[in-house]
Amino acid sequence: MKKIEILAICTHEGILQTINRLINNNEAWNSTCAASIDEARKICDNSEFDLILIGSGLSAAEEQELESVLAAHKNIPVVKHYGGGSGLLFGEIHHALSNR
Question: How far apart, in whole angstroms, are the C-alpha atoms of residue 23 and residue 40?
Answer without folding.
Answer: 17
